[in-house]
């Protein structure tokens, strides 16, 4: 499926570029912060013999990708700006699947697109069935800060919520809980403001403007959110009120230290199309030293109020759950069922080598995913990520392979291997 593209940048982007350019030349050249990275990655995904995905691609599915990123920022007095440029390329079988069919990924694109964002700062340089090259601005914002306020306008990223693996309060371009490279969230076009109170508490506000499928600015697709972050003795708490895609949302969360362990959690209530959906997450985390190694672990329970509780995730079931389907399509939710248990253990094998084992357990259909991740700094500014994903479950289950429209042909994958080499400058 080819992406649509607006013919030109909206006029509102011109003042932002002009202001940043003036600051660029007016500032002190030695104060510019320039950095970036180059990443090369490869994936291989095995397919079970009965997987319907075999009809659309080879077994195993093989993909490669490259990401070149330049980050430039500067500060002059209370004003600052940032511009992050990305050149991305992808090639392979999963990309071709996503280009040809909507069977996998729940609408997620292999490369970011700006069709529904306020500003179209992404351009496909070239595109074929199994390859694509894109360049874009992932960050582009102007900021002003004082002793107690921060104001930012433009493309930026914000992360809220107290979930460690699943995070229902983080609905602005969240990461998939099983994502391996989580260095940069995709930016959104927004206005962000923060006010710091004398008590140390703060109030934050976010307004995200989006377009509809006709590329018109649509108020029903916007997000307006306010969050109060406060402190009480050994605890922190968050109060959130938002309207997200015309759905009023309230959330309460926080964290507390209990005997050296940290407990965190959130509960979020959403009113959508006359129905009330309640999601919640609670987790425990602990760090310690054993065998001369730094170790940490966390356990998390997640209740997905939009989820399906009977283990049927086929096309008809998703059609009967439009709120779930919409959030999957938008890439703000990655869970099909109602109840999950997740756990992660991290060990520092050496000062520059860390191993992580994460288990994702669907409590409604008993399927699971085990992810083993190695993060190794080979030398200064050179990092190697290697991850092995091991799904397990019956046909029809979330991690075993959800049902397709074809009998006895689930949308299933077996083990997958991911490797990424990143050079930072």
Give the helix/strand class. Answer: mainly beta
Q: What is the class in the CATH system?
A: Mainly Beta
CA-to-CA gap between the ends? 35 Å
- The CATH superfamily title: Porin
CATH topology, by name, is Porin
Short characterization:
With 425 residues, the chain is mainly beta. The protein has helices spanning 13-26, 93-100, 315-319, 322-330; strands spanning 33-45, 61-76, 79-92, 122-127, 131-145, 149-156, 188-196, 202-208, 223-232, 235-244, 247-258, 261-272, 275-290, 293-303, 339-350, 353-362, 368-379, 382-392, 416-424.
Account of the protein in words:
The protein has helices spanning 13-26, 93-100, 315-319, 322-330, and strands spanning 33-45, 61-76, 79-92, 122-127, 131-145, 149-156, 188-196, 202-208, 223-232, 235-244, 247-258, 261-272, 275-290, 293-303, 339-350, 353-362, 368-379, 382-392, 416-424. It is mostly beta strands and 425 residues long. The protein has a single domain (13-424), classed as Porin (Beta Barrel), CATH 2.40.160.10. Strand 15 and strand 16 (353-362) form a beta hairpin.
How is the secondary structure organized here?
Layout: H1 13-26, E1 33-45, E2 61-76, E3 79-92, H2 93-100, E4 122-127, E5 131-145, E6 149-156, E7 188-196, E8 202-208, E9 223-232, E10 235-244, E11 247-258, E12 261-272, E13 275-290, E14 293-303, H3 315-319, H4 322-330, E15 339-350, E16 353-362, E17 368-379, E18 382-392, E19 416-424
Antiparallel strand pairs: 1-2, 1-19, 2-3, 3-5, 4-5, 5-6, 6-7, 7-8, 8-9, 9-10, 10-11, 11-12, 12-13, 13-14, 14-15, 15-16, 16-17, 17-18, 18-19
């Amino acid at each position: 499926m080819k992406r649509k593209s607006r013919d030109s940048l909206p006029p509102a982007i011109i003042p932002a570029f002009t202001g940043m350019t003036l600051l660029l030349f007016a500032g002190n050249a030695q104060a510019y912060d320039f950095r970036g990275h180059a990443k090369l990655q490869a994936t291989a995904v095995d397919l079970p013999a009965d997987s319907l995905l075999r009809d659309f691609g080879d077994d195993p599915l093989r993909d490669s990708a490259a990401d070149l990123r330049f980050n430039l920022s500067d500060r002059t007095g209370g004003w600052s700006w940032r511009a992050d440029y990305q050149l991305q390329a992808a090639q392979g079988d999963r990309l071709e699947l996503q280009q040809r069919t909507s069977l996998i990924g729940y609408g997620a694109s292999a490369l970011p697109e700006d069709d529904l964002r306020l500003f179209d700062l992404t351009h496909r340089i070239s595109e074929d069935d199994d390859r694509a090259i894109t360049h874009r601005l992932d960050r582009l914002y102007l900021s002003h800060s004082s002793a107690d306020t921060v104001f930012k306008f433009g493309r930026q990223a914000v992360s809220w919520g107290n979930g460690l693996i699943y995070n229902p309060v983080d609905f602005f371009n969240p990461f998939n809980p099983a994502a391996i490279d989580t260095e940069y969230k995709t930016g959104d076009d927004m206005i962000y403001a923060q006010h710091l109170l004398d008590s140390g508490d703060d109030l934050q506000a976010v307004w995200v403007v989006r377009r509809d499928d006709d590329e018109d600015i649509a108020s029903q697709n916007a997000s307006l959110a306010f969050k109060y972050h406060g402190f009480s003795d050994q605890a922190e708490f968050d109060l959130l009120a938002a309207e997200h895609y015309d759905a009023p949302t309230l959330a309460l969360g926080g964290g507390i230290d209990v005997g050296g362990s940290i407990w965190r959690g959130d509960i979020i209530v959403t009113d959508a199309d006359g129905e009330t959906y309640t999601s919640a997450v609670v987790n425990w985390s602990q760090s310690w030293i054993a065998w001369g190694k730094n170790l940490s672990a966390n356990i998390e329970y997640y209740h997905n109020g939009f989820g399906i509780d009977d283990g049927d995730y086929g096309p008809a079931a998703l059609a009967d759950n439009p709120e779930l389907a919409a959030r999957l399509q938008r890439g703000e939710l990655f869970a099909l069922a109602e109840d999950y248990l997740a756990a992660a253990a991290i060990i520092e094998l050496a000062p520059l080598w860390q191993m992580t084992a994460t288990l994702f357990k669907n409590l409604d259909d008993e399927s699971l995913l085990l992810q083993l991740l190695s993060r190794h700094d080979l030398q200064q500014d050179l990092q190697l990520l290697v991850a092995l994903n091991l799904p397990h479950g019956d046909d029809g289950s979330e991690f075993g392979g959800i049902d397709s429209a074809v009998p006895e042909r689930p949308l299933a994958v077996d083990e997958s291997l991911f490797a990424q080499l990143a050079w930072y400058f």
